[in-house]
Amino acid sequence: MNDIKDYANVHNVPIIMDKGLEFLLEIIKDNNCKNILELGTAIGYSSIKMAKLSKDINIDTIERKELMYNQAIKNIKNEGLENQINCNYMNIDDFRTEKKYDLIFVDAAKAQYGRYLDMFAKNIKKDGIFFFDNISFHGYVEHPERIESRNRRQLVRKITHFRDEVLKDDRYNCEYYPNKGDGIIILKIKENK
Predict the structure, then answer these.
(1) What is the pLDDT of residue 192?
(2) Are 116 and 162 in contact (CB under 8 A)?
(3) The domain at 2-189 falls in which architecture?
(4) Taking the alpha carbons of 26, 30, 36, 39 in that order, is the dihedral positive or negative?
(5) In the sheet that 172-177 helps form, which strands lie side by side, from edge to edge?
(6) For 29-67, what is each residue's pLDDT tens digit?
(7) DSSP code at position 138
(8) Taking the domains of the chain in order of start, what are their residue ranges?
């Protein structure tokens, strides 16, 4: 697995931070998650780590960049996990399924987090968990004064808006962990009364 991390570092591929990954794996174990949807495969690092927790874990993962998708397929095959990880080469907007998941791990376009929540709410099991990574976005959400680029400022505004909206929305049980990895939100949809 270190070779995958090394590849990510050399090729500047964003993968989940170690502390964030530890927290994700802990959530999966504590909640006995078996069916997982991952939005944003990158090179397969987090899917491989999740699948290695148990042979009963099955993951559908989506990647839109061909180079990363091909590298993910190679890494998944090298780890012998192609029976557990189903990697889809497509845009997240084009992915359709009736499946219900125990956990949906969202680590794709940060500006689209709210839309992804709306899109996949129907695919989460009762008591299922949404796990959103990069909510602190390298500390910029807490310290926007450090941002120099206009595009980054807009992205941070969108992430901040998403965080603030879900934390106060009474349709969700939502917890924000700014000090886990790069900031994580754990969200469960409350049952309709």
Answers:
(1) 58
(2) no
(3) 3-Layer(aba) Sandwich (3.40)
(4) negative
(5) 85-89, 58-63, 35-39, 101-106, 124-132, 184-189, 172-177
(6) 999 999 999 999 999 999 999 999 999 999 999 999 999
(7) T
(8) 2-189
